[in-house]
Design brief:
The complex is a heterotrimer of chains A (368), B (373) and C (247).
Chain A (H helix, E strand, L loop, with lengths): L1 H15 L2 H21 L7 E7 L4 H12 L3 E5 L4 H10 L4 E5 L3 H7 L2 E9 L3 H22 L8 E9 L11 H27 L1 H7 L4 H30 L8 H24 L4 H20 L10 H7 L3 H14 L4 H30 L1
Helix pairs in contact in A: 1-9, 2-7, 2-9, 3-6, 7-9, 7-10, 7-11, 7-13, 9-10, 10-13, 10-14, 13-14
Chain B lengths: L1 H16 L1 H21 L7 E7 L4 H11 L4 E7 L2 H9 L5 E5 L3 H8 L1 E9 L4 H20 L1 H6 L9 E9 L6 H32 L1 H6 L5 H31 L7 H25 L3 H18 L11 H8 L2 H15 L3 H25 L5
Parallel strand pairs in B: 1-2, 1-3
Antiparallel strand pairs in B: 3-4
Helix pairs in contact in B: 1-10, 2-8, 2-10, 8-10, 8-11, 8-12, 8-14, 10-11, 11-12, 11-14, 11-15, 14-15
Chain C lengths: L3 E12 L2 E12 L3 E6 L5 H8 L7 E6 L2 E2 L4 H7 E4 L11 H11 L4 H15 L14 H12 L6 E5 L7 H16 L3 E6 L2 H4 L4 E6 L2 E6 L1 H8 L4 H9 L8
Parallel strand pairs in C: 3-8, 3-9, 6-7, 7-8
Antiparallel strand pairs in C: 1-2, 1-4, 4-5, 9-10
Chain lengths: 368, 373, 247
């Protein structure tokens, strides 16, 4: 036992003496939280649109004013011909053109309906859709204000409630995903690299020649990263609570318990990767470059999993971060208890055992 | 010049002996280009909704069946109470709950208005909130289609003040998301490969000690750096080409604009990226360090680049950061040229950014590299 | 008067308060085999790196092959060869490819490269291995190969940093035979080593202790001076008071 502690202490020295690794371990989450919390959003704001008003009359001006008053758009005004529209889009700045044909007011009052043409730059379909929706709702509300009589006599309206997120905190959607992503990548990469480095340097042989069981070597490697990841997780949690004002609704103990399991899963995965290669470069390429995009995609926090082709959904099932993401959402943000996440927890535990078993077996074989 | 030739010969020999590199060049772009756009699908379908019908009237039945047949929703349950319906949200089987109040039909006719409760699982992000918006439009449609409303509205050409809006989507008439995302993924690939591989390469020589041997020879600094840049530049361009071919074969996307322009800008972008990788490797002593630093920055670049989210919507300070990354500008350029056919004059301001990066990063790397300590 | 190919006057390299090389002065003559000895941490490698143009001195003067170490490093590099302590050929290139690269880098013409590499491979008996990766060679062969590559371009001086570390005695002998051949052809050899028996093979040796040069003479004279039979003893006498323990 005492030897194990000696070993673990050595591993800690390794880690703390490398400031750049520490930068990654702790700097990365902080940066991610800031980015996701403050900079990245799926909303559409500050879009440049062009209003081409051929009528220049009272009603078209009213509509234009209303659009300008909304905070979504930066409105440019110029009367341009059809051919110039394409060039305008090609320049890239303007995302949408709204055209009032001549005689707008006249059409509204005397012909029963006025025309507005909206041309959107479809190369970004989501933004285009959103812009069109916003513009349409602004125009509808203009209609209701100017022509109350045209409204339907019977109105059904909805009373929306945003569950779990009464403050409409935009970052809520991303934070659990960021947690899962960072833990998975950092943990896996660091563990696999640490083991492979010893193999590459040749010091692994020395360790194995010592009276240690090989298992002990691996445990000693895993322990510092385990503890550091817990610290990392706490850091992310603190940042989310204090900087992004996210409320932790669920049981903290349960949260840490689940995180601990997930970290173990990542460590085992790192171990597995380290078995496949003797070169640091390869271990790094696999665990960082190779895993980055699949983790982002298959965790399901940036893009909904349900929309993906079924084969992707199948693959996502073997990505541990997908399950952890569900657990985090349920426990941290919805405040649910073990009763609701026992299935996912079991899956994670199962994955860990499975990965560990294979990794250990492989490790022993390679020694022969 | 002659020395450069020998350098290049050595580099190429080394690179091609390394099987991982070859895998990188061909397999990785292909796989990622195929997988990622398929996964990044924002069309919302199969929104799970739990319905609580406290009214059981003909109106409520009609509304419910309209929702069910809309194609967007999947009615997962009809619950007796709101509490029961909430369970579905808790266990994740529903994204929305819609509650119709008792006396819905009766009160609507008598009082002229009614409220429907819609509860959205806000944790579920875009799916739920878009689901809410769709539900609203289905309800509004239902509202307009009610017979009560039809009778009082004159059948003549529209009431006064009706605005008819026509929409069109240019460059992407079917509004398919893949046209938007695939060029972005192409840039992403180039960035990953250019940034990571070049960072690792010099550091590997540092670690092996062969760099000292180089420092002792009469090879000039710029010859050495060019010797490192050129092979990766060529590899990057090959990857770009493979990527374009995959775009064409798998997605049917061909560049609307000039391919020559695309290639030349890609060439400059690669130089900027390689400069970045080079810079990192001059500051790192081990491969692990170089990888980590590169990873740190590249992740930030990718997230801030407008690949996944829009740059315009960022707060001002974030926009500054976004503009300070070369990735942002190249993505804009690629999208503009490939999807809209923008020409040189349209992209020249973005191109200027990339040029500045290319010169600054490489200049810094060269300045930082010391043959004599 | 023989030509001096290396001249050092009060050469110093300091890192903060630490003097790795402390006012070292010595000369090396053309065609000599000069042994640069010292304990670990004495400053040998640091001094050698300055002479190779890999590092700037803090003060003092030095010229190598007639060129100034402060301002003419690139000229120095054209005229010297170097074999580092850590084996520095490319493990994932073949023998021929390594030779071709380094030959080309030192401006040896294609024709010469071909001729000399054929001879080199013959001399080393590596005909069967010529196309194989260097990484697969046993250590002794690697060292001999690295030396051959270091003198491939017929430099004026070749610097060898502990070239025979970890190599068996037979191979060491063969290595020194190669050194003698090189010396006979006019190349000045500047070699650092821990093996005191190798010190006997040199024309003159110097001993560095704690950054300072404590002895500079032929092996014979040094043995007489300290009244001992072997260079081991000479070294022991000089270095046992050394304070620094590691490089």
């Amino acid at each position: 036992m005492k030897q194990l502690f000696v070993f673990i202490r050595k591993e800690f020295y390794h880690v703390f003496r490398d400031p750049r690794t520490l930068l990654i371990m702790f700097g990365l989450p902080v940066v991610q939280i800031i980015l996701f919390g403050f900079a990245l959003t799926s909303e559409v704001k500050n879009t440049d649109i062009l209003i081409s008003d051929y009528s220049q009359d009272v009603q078209s001006t009213k509509v234009t004013q209303k659009i300008k008053a909304s905070s979504y758009f930066i409105v440019h005004e110029a009367v341009i011909g059809n051919r110039e529209i394409e060039n305008t889009f090609k320049k890239g700045q303007i995302k949408c053109v709204l055209i009032f044909p001549p005689g707008f007011s006249n059409d509204l009052f005397h012909n029963g309906k006025g025309q507005i043409q909206i041309i959107a730059d479809g190369s970004d379909p989501n933004t285009a859709k959103t812009i069109i929706n916003y513009l349409t709702s602004i125009i509808s509300s203009y209609q209701r204000e100017e022509f109350p009589a045209a409204a339907t006599p019977y109105q059904i309206t909805t009373e929306p409630r945003m569950l779990y997120n009464e403050d409409d905190n935009g970052s809520l959607n991303y934070i659990p995903g960021v947690m899962a992503l960072i833990l998975m990548l950092v943990c896996t990469a660091l563990t696999s690299v640490s083991i492979v480095k010893e193999k590459e340097l040749g010091t692994m042989e020395i360790l194995l020649v010592s009276p240690f069981k090989p298992v002990m070597v691996l445990i000693a490697k895993a322990v510092p990263y385990f503890l550091l990841s817990i610290v990392n997780f706490s850091l992310i949690l603190l940042l989310s609570v204090f900087m992004l004002h996210i409320e932790v609704k669920g049981n903290l103990l349960l949260l840490f318990f689940e995180t601990a399991i997930f970290i173990l899963t990542c460590l085992s995965f790192g171990l597995l990767i380290s078995n496949t290669t003797n070169a640091q470069q390869t271990a790094l390429l696999i665990s960082m470059m190779g895993m980055m995009l699949p983790t982002i995609i298959f965790t399901g926090f940036l893009f909904p999993l349900e929309n993906m082709p079924w084969i992707f959904q199948l693959i996502a099932n073997i990505v541990p971060s997908k399950w952890y993401f569900i657990i985090i959402k349920n426990v941290m943000l919805k405040g649910l208890g073990l009763k609701y996440v026992w299935k996912e927890t079991l899956i994670l535990i199962g994955m860990t055992c499975f990965l560990l078993a294979i990794a250990l077996k492989n490790f022993k074989i390679r020694l022969q | 010049m002659k020395k450069l030739r020998f350098l290049l010969q050595k580099e190429f020999r080394q690179i091609f002996r390394d099987k991982t590199i070859l895998a990188m060049m061909l397999a990785v772009p292909t796989i990622q280009l195929i997988i990622i756009p398929q996964a990044m699908n924002f069309d919302i379908k199969n929104i799970n909704i739990s319905i609580v019908d406290n009214d059981h009237s003909s109106y409520s039945q009609k509304l419910i069946s309209k929702i069910g047949s809309s194609g967007y929703f999947r009615i997962v349950s009809n619950d007796i109470s709101y509490q029961k319906a909430l369970r579905h949200i808790e266990n994740g089987s529903a994204d929305l709950v819609m509650e119709l109040p008792n006396g819905f039909e009766r009160n609507l006719i008598r009082e002229g208005s009614q409220k429907i409760g819609v509860s959205v699982d806000a944790i579920n992000g875009s799916k739920a909130s878009i689901g809410g918006a769709y539900l609203n439009s289905v309800i509004a449609d239902f509202n307009a289609g009610l017979e009560v409303n039809q009778i009082t509205v004159p059948t003549q050409p529209g009431p006064e003040g009706f605005v008819d809006i026509t929409y069109s989507n240019w460059f992407n008439t079917l509004a398919e998301y893949k046209f938007y995302i695939v060029p972005g993924v192409l840039v992403l690939l180039l960035t990953l490969i250019g940034g990571f591989m070049s960072a690792l390469n010099i550091v590997r020589e540092k670690e092996a000690g062969t760099i000292e041997q180089i420092n002792v020879t009469p090879i000039k600094k710029w010859e050495f750096i060019l010797g490192k840049l050129i092979p990766f530049w060529i590899i990057g361009m090959i990857v770009f080409t493979v990527g374009l071919i995959v775009c064409w074969i798998v997605y049917g996307i061909i560049s609307v604009g000039s391919i020559a322009l695309l290639y030349s800008i890609a060439g400059i972008y690669l130089i900027a990226l390689l400069g970045f990788g080079l810079l990192i490797s001059t500051y790192s002593d081990s491969q692990v360090q170089a990888m980590f630093i590169a990873f740190f920055f590249i992740l930030i670049f990718i997230l801030m680049s407008g690949l996944f989210t829009s740059v315009d919507s960022m707060p001002p300070w974030a926009k500054v950061v976004s503009n300070a990354t070369p990735v942002t500008h190249f993505i804009k350029i690629v999208r503009m040229i490939m999807l809209k056919g923008s020409g040189f004059s349209d992209v020249k301001s973005e191109l200027a950014y990339i040029l500045v990066f290319a010169i600054a990063l490489n200049g810094w790397a060269i300045w930082n590299y010391r043959k004599t300590a | 008067m023989e030509e001096k190919v290396i001249i050092c006057k009060e050469l110093t390299k300091q890192f903060g308060n630490f003097y790795a090389v402390d006012k070292v002065s010595f000369d090396v003559y053309k065609g000599e085999i000069f042994g640069f000895l010292g304990a670990n941490g004495a400053g040998k490698t640091t001094a050698m790196r300055i002479l190779c143009g890999l590092s700037f001195p803090s003060s003092g003067e030095a010229t190598v092959a007639g060129f100034n170490v402060y301002r003419q490093q690139e000229s120095i590099k054209r005229n010297i060869g170097y074999m580092s302590q850590k084996f520095s050929l490319y493990e994932n290139l073949s023998i021929l490819e390594n030779i071709e690269f380094f030959g080309g880098v030192y401006d040896v013409s294609r024709k010469e490269i071909k001729e000399r590499s054929d001879k080199l491979i013959d001399d080393l008996g590596l005909q069967k291995e010529a196309k194989k990766m260097v990484g697969g060679l046993p250590l002794g062969w690697k060292q001999k190969l690295a030396f051959s590559v270091a003198i491939f371009h017929r430099p004026k001086i070749v610097f060898l940093d502990e070239p025979t570390g970890g190599v068996d005695p037979v191979t060491r002998r063969q290595f020194w035979d190669m050194i003698y051949d090189a010396s006979a052809s006019g190349i000045t050899i500047f070699v650092t080593t821990h093996y005191m028996d190798e010190a006997e093979y040199c024309n003159r040796i110097s001993v560095m202790v704690d950054g300072k040069m404590e002895a500079l003479d032929t092996p014979g004279n040094l043995k007489k001076r300290f009244s001992v039979e072997s260079m081991d003893e000479v070294f022991y006498q000089l270095a046992r008071g050394a304070v620094r323990k590691a490089d």
